[in-house]
Design brief:
The chain has about 260 residues and is mostly helical. About 85% of the residues lie in helices and about 0% in strands. It has helices at about 5-35, 35-60, 60-70, 70-85, 90-115, 125-140, 150-160, 170-200, 205-215, 220-260.
Length: about 260
């Protein structure tokens, strides 16, 4: 095994840890809101299991491509239908309307999306899709933008496959991977600014929730400092996570392509 292959395996292992780790933390946080430790542990274990499943999909180009083809439109219509209906109806009715939107999305996906090559779709359409799911992710995790880092990982994997047809044009590959990484960081920056504005409008309540979860007392100035510096760190992390994922997965796909030819 060459040093390059060993390095690639280390990077792949690092990426494989991210989904289980982040989703485990997310599950534990959700469980802690119930103030029930067994529930928190159960949700944390469920997060690990979902993370492993996502890794299996991400490291199989066929499964990853199928997921990209079949999930965005149905999930988007499910969430939009559910959220809009929830403004006017009860929770059970809105959920049923959301499911109706999901099945309509499957039909639209079959009619409109599948005939096209998703890895060659126009960048502005990709941007709209990514922004939509970034907003959805922020809402799903109750306005906590930390978990939007996971979308950067998915975006990096997508970018790595998108540039494969131009693998012999190194400048093209590098430019596109960096542009994609900058875009994910910019989207996260905008979401963090929005989240901070909302959070600071009710700072006392937010500090109280943070103190209950972390068992640690904060002053207003301490909380402002942690929130702002943490937000900046997240944006920087998003850029590098997306770029590292894209470069690592590009190397991984190319190594598999080379091995299949030998």
């Amino acid at each position: 095994m060459s040093s390059i292959n060993r390095l690639l395996k280390i990077k792949l292992l690092f990426l494989a840890l991210l989904f289980p780790l982040f989703l485990s933390v997310a599950g534990f946080m959700v469980g802690m809101f119930t103030k029930n430790i067994p529930f928190a542990i159960l949700f944390s274990i469920s997060g690990v299991a979902i993370g492993i499943l996502l890794n299996i999909i991400g490291y199989s180009r066929k499964l990853f491509t199928l997921a990209l083809f079949y999930t965005p439109v149905p999930l988007a219509l499910f969430m939009l239908s559910w959220w809009i209906a929830d403004l006017f109806t009860g929770s059970n009715v809105s959920l049923l309307i959301g499911l109706l939107g999901f099945f309509v999305g499957i039909w639209l996906n079959y009619e409109l999306v599948l005939p096209y090559q998703f890895y060659k779709i126009k960048k502005r359409i990709l941007a709209v899709i990514y922004i939509f799911f970034s907003i959805s992710c922020l809402g799903f995790f109750m306005g906590i933008p930390v978990f939007n880092i996971l979308l950067g990982i998915l975006a990096g994997n997508y970018l790595s496959i998108r540039v494969m047809d131009n693998y012999n044009r190194q400048s093209y590959v590098t430019k596109n991977l960096r542009q994609g990484s900058l875009f994910t960081a910019l989207v996260l920056l905008l979401l963090i600014v929005y989240s901070l504005l909302v959070a600071f409008s009710d700072i006392d309540h937010l500090i109280q929730l943070a103190e209950q979860m972390l068992r640690f007392s904060f002053t207003h100035s301490q909380f402002y400092f942690i929130a702002i510096t943490g937000g900046i760190a997240l944006v920087i992390l998003q850029y590098f996570i997306t770029l590292i994922t894209a470069k690592t997965m590009f190397e991984y796909w190319m190594s598999k392509k080379k091995a299949s030819r030998e």
